[in-house]
Amino acid sequence: MSESMSESTPLRSRRSCLAVPGSNPRFLEKAKGLDADQVFLDIEDAVAPLAKPDARKNIVAALNEGGWGGKVRVVRVNDWTTQWTYRDVIEVVEGAGANLDCIMLPKVQSAEQVVALDLLLSQIETETGLEPGRIGIEAQIENAQGLINVDAIATASPRVETIIFGPADFMASINMKSLVVGEQPPGYDVGDAYHHILMSILMAARAHDLQAIDGPYLQVRDTDAFRKVAGRSAALGFDGKWCLHPDQVAAANETFSPRQEDYDHAENILDAYDWCTSEAGGKMGAAMLGDEMIDEASRKMALVISAKGRAAGM
Ligand code: GLV
Ligand code: MG
């Protein structure tokens, strides 16, 4: 395993991951023109049971029509405890596998559930002549069982690209006494009730070179509150957040990009470090950049900001 994600993995930018209900062809069309890094076309909780068959068809058509630009194209299927998962995967991947980047699996509870999806994808790829292993898996952690098993889930298949926090289902699963997703539960005034969950997901992601994505914020008209909640996971090191509304996209792109001054500073550190370790710079392991002492650890921190900035087009 590599030492630093930023040195080994060209980051696929996922600052903003826009949810689009597969049951609504108008929303599917509109999403193509929005500035989200990723779209996920939903057959799960945003789609009523009776609408799921049509949603699968709409999604296949929208993916094959194209027009998604450089967006990461993801479909969220239903979880393995329902009767819909196998049909979601078969219909979508047989119908549009060449125009699809990842399948998002919600409410993942165990490594076996990821393995089951991996096997199904492999069979479809073989049968339909798709490139083996190209379609990735995004695993959503939405309950206590999933969090306890998050490390095994992260390593269950080489297809896994992201670990996603699903706060709404998670809050319900642990009986949290709150209805406002992402906000602190009333009565809990000793810290951040989500810290342990976010950190556990982030550690599993970083330990295995995956991306960590924060879930939705439901008060879609309150962009300031969105920025605040997104800012918490961005500060910890998360790579992006879900957007449920086009208004949240710009806020997510901004929040999960480095600030311009931090990006510039990171580039300066990298240049200064290159110079000080070179023959001409005296082969030194540490040096001063203005009033700041920099060394190999500074270089690693700077690489993270620099990689995020470059992925964001800075
Ligand atoms: C998303 O699926 C959530 O449950 O928060
Ligand atoms: Mg959910």
Automatic annotation (TrEMBL):
Needed cofactors: Mg(2+)
UniProt: Mg(2+) binding residues: E142, D169
A GO term, aspect molecular function: lyase activity
Binding site for substrate: R76, E142
Gene3D superfamilies in alphabetical order: Phosphoenolpyruvate-binding domains
Record's protein name: CoA ester lyase
Short name of one Pfam family: HpcH_HpaI
Alphabetical GO biological process terms: oxaloacetate metabolic process
The keyword Magnesium is annotated on this UniProt entry: yes
Residue ranges of domain HpcH/HpaI aldolase/citrate lyase in the record: 15-246
Record keywords, A-Z: Lyase, Magnesium, Metal-binding
